């Protein structure tokens, strides 16, 4: 089963696209890596917040200071979580945050890099038992 992460880089979209072109291999729909990770841009028009809980959107807005109108979706398998951590940290190296499918926390790059446990979970991984 695959999981998703949504990254919201602080850099302007054109700069993020250039950065993604360096980090991954461009495809017709986005980018991919050897891991594999599948990456594509998303925005409100393409349903960015379609399946989000209202409190998760509010938490993102509070952390960022506004409602981001675009982001980067990363699809991965749990068995490739280590590659996800490295990729997300590289993508957000100039600032920004990410949200995963598991705990509703808005993750900073420092939290991702340190693999900290928050709300019983780590970035990109379900609750630790």
What does this structure look like?
With 129 residues, this protein is of the alpha+beta class. The chain has a single domain (2-124), classed as 2-Layer Sandwich (Alpha-Beta Plaits). It is built from four helices and nine strands; from the N terminus they run E-H-E-E-E-H-E-H-E-E-H-E-E. The chain has helices spanning 13-23, 54-64, 81-91, 109-114, and strands at residues 2-9, 25-27, 30-32, 38-43, 70-77, 96-100, 106-108, 121-122, 125-127. The protein has a seven-stranded antiparallel beta sheet, sandwiched between helices. A two-stranded antiparallel ribbon has the order 8-9. The two termini are 20 Å apart. 26% of the residues are buried. The model has no long low-confidence stretch (mean pLDDT 94).
Computed Rg:
14 Å
Helix tally? 4
What is the CATH class? Answer: Alpha Beta
* Proportion of helical residues: 25-40%
Oligomer: single chain
- Which fold name is given in CATH as the topology? Alpha-Beta Plaits
**Unreliable spans:** none
Count the E strands. Answer: 9
CATH architecture: 2-Layer Sandwich
Q: What is the count of structural domains?
A: 1
Largest sheet: 7 strands, antiparallel
Main sheet: strand order: 2-3-4-5-1-6-7
Shape: globular
Order of helices and strands: EHEEEHEHEEHEE
Structural class: alpha+beta
Q: What value does the average pLDDT take?
A: 94
* SS strand fraction: 25-35%
- Report how far the terminal alpha carbons are from each other: 20 Å
